[in-house]
Amino acid sequence: MELKEKKALITGAGKGIGRSIALALAKEGVHVGLVARSAADLEQLAGSISNDYPVKAVYATADVAIRSEVEKAYSSIKNHQSAIGWCPTTDRYQPVQEVENDRLLYRRYFLLRFYS
Asked: pTM for this one?
C-alpha cells in the first residue's frame, strides 16, 4: 500500500503504541492527526514529527470515552487536514468514510484505540 501523502487519524497518539504508529506513518510520508488526553505529549510529538519528516502533524486533545470530545477533536483535525483518509487501529486500517457513516463503528474504533 502506498502511504505517501495519505492522511491518518491516530488516537492514543501521546504514548505507547499510538505514538509508535504516528511516528512510523510520518516516516512513510503520511500526514497525521493526533488525538490523546495530554496536550503536552501531543505538542511534543507533533513538533518532533514536523521537524523530522516532510509531513503535516496536527493534534487535538480528547478523552475518547466522551463522545462530545471525540467529535470536537475530529472536527478540529479534519479542519486542518481537509480530509482524513483512514484511521489505523491495532487490528486493521479502516477507511474513515466507512466509519463516519456508522456512528457505532466510529465510536468502536476510538474506544478500541483507547483501551488497547
From this structure: 0.72
